[in-house]
Amino acid sequence: MEHVQEYPPPVAPSAYQPLATRVSVIGPEYCYPQPVDLAVVRKVLTISEGKFAVSDINGNIMFITKGKIFSIHDRSVFVVQSFSDIALFQIMTVHDRWQVFRRESTEEKDLIFTVKRSSMIQLKIKLHVFLATNPKENVCDFRVEGSWLERSCIIYSGESNTILAQMHKKHSVESVLLGKDKFMVTVYPNVDYAFVVALIAILDGINHDDDE
Predict the structure, then answer these.
(1) Smaller CB count within 10 Å for the chain: N or C?
(2) Domain membership flag for residue 119
(3) Residue 130's domain is classified under what CATH number?
(4) Which helix (H) or strand (E) holds 205?
């Protein structure tokens, strides 16, 4: 059954201009002509024991992780679901590689993209993202750079300076009360926000792997 988006886009700031080409990775239904502001809250324990939830600016939950399904021999799988998709996609980690598959599959034909560190030793985050249609992985399709500790990460298109999304702290009374486990992500116009959520889930997994 075709996905029906249930969440209206937030009001678009005039400062953002849509990209000339739509960036659709998970699906075109997750691309809006306006920027999308997402709030990420870690350690959500009330809905399916999720590790974090992603909501819109009105507080409506859009995605939530189900945590690790299994972990054996340096391999783990966890699912990110939306409230209109039981299993939107799932992420498998194997030896410092993160693979994102459609729905509940882990078969090669259902691979969407792969994420790798640009180098094993990193003071700050630098990840390379390769679409399944780019199996040689000579040049990355997207990259993520920044500091998870400072909640300051940017997602770029390939090796360019074109920004697709950026993570930032939200300085408000609410964010102070919720503490460091809440931060904001702004997804630029015409960029697949479910794809951005997948990258945030991977970043969360990398930086909280021992946080059981």
Answers:
(1) N
(2) yes
(3) 2.40.160.200
(4) helix 193-207
